[in-house]
Amino acid sequence: ARAAARCGPGAVMGSKNLKAIAVRGDRGIQVADKAALQGAAEEAVGAILGDPLYESAKTYGTLAITPLAQALGFLPTRNFQESTFEGAEKLRGEVFMEKYATKHKGCYNCPVACSRFYEVSEGPYAATRGEGPEYESVSALGSKCGNDNFAAILHANTLCNQLGMDTISTGNTLAWVMECREKNILTQDQLDGLDLRFGNDAAMIELIKKMAAREGIGDILAEGACRAAQKMGGADRVVHSKGLDYPAVDIRGTKGMALSFAVSPRGGDHLKGLSLYEVAPDIYAQDIREETGINVTPHYWLQYETKAVLMRWHENWHCVVDSLGLCKLEGIALKPLLPKHFQRMLAAATGWQIPVNELELIGERIWNLERLFNAREGMRKEDDLPPRRLFEEPIATGPAQGERLDRKRYEQMLTEYYRLRGWAPDTGIPTSEKCRELSLD
Question: Which of 45, 68, 273, 401 is the least crowded, having the fewest Cβ atoms under 10 Å away?
Fold first, then answer.
């Protein structure tokens, strides 16, 4: 389910004995121009309803991504050892809707209503109920772990939500353990006797419980794969940037997202610059050209060229969408709304007549401020590199067979990104000129 689960905010709140923050206002909400806001909202809804991917998003939510990832070859499998999964057909949205979905759920007045409730009615996981699951969770607890048992994935998803655990980092930690066990980096005795082979869903569920309770080996693994590897070995098998595990994209098959995940201020994060434009270029070729000036080429997702431009644009607008309190799925990450829609709704609601180019500048200021925080904490250019294994290990099978990150071409892409950002080429720190330009001096 959708929760602010990554990077440990719940752990921070727990350390302060803080259960929740409740805010209640005593005044109504006033808008600058009700009629204009109604018109801008209707225009936005029309754009959503007219989007080519609307029906699949409404029917399956983010599970609609699973067949796309399989078809293009970026579905992480067995801890990123492969990029297609032989069990992917069992994890499609159609299977979920037929066997497990009970009803749709949407945010207030949303025309998409992309979330669902589910219930498992038979088998060892019968009576499991919950909300979701998102594509990220299905990949993390499914293909990454070599697990095609949808009922087990739903049970693990419910467990994580109930126990306050991030499904992505939990799944990545499980997948890391499984690969380390496969390669004899870890022994079964070290893992409390659990038979953590890829695909063993029962052992996976048991380990999640141990991690939540910090019981036995779960005490070490509760810290995540990066910290566990420091104590147990296998650090070269952890797929992360800046300490945060990668989401459900094998970046060897999506070169722009390789850049996006590496330069993200939070590390391996799909919420800062995820680009549907990169993996559905034929559908959105006109929008890509009009918004960024890029003319897409065949197999665009495998190309390095123009990705610095594309990701910079997405990052800026992700910051704007966050600041406006809009949904990223319909707002910018998965389309279909465009900057003109954000500008018109903001102007109608607040009366602020901010041109689109200045609105993007606000997003750029936010992105640079976050970069400055990281620079203060010692992060530099070397922290903007993807994991070494993704440079060295080519994809063995599937549509992206033979693909791996080319270090020279990646560094050229990174250099171009720094140039566009106005960051120092040797450190990746925003220059004094850029800070003055953005009023951050």
Answer: 401
* pLDDT for the residue 124: 98
Half-sphere exposure (CA, 13 Å, Cβ side) for 120? 21
The bridge status of strand 115-119 relative to strand 101-105 is antiparallel
Q: Catalogue all structural domains in the chain, each as residue range(s) with its CATH number.
A: 33-50+250-441 (1.10.599.10), 59-238 (1.10.569.10)
The residues pairing with 131 across neighbouring beta strands, listed in sequence order, are 117
What are 261-266's contacts with CB under 8 Å, separation 24+? 261/386, 262/384, 262/385, 262/386, 262/414, 263/311, 263/384, 263/414, 263/417, 263/428, 265/367, 265/370, 265/371, 265/373, 265/374, 266/6, 266/7, 266/242
Q: What pTM was estimated for this model as a whole? A: 0.95
Whether the predicted pLDDT of 333 surpasses 70: no
Report the C-alpha gap between 283 and 277 in whole angstroms. Answer: 8
CB 350 within 8 A of CB 324: no
Question: DSSP strand E in 114-241: where?
Answer: 115-119, 129-131, 240-241
- What tokens appear for 140 in the block? 């993390």
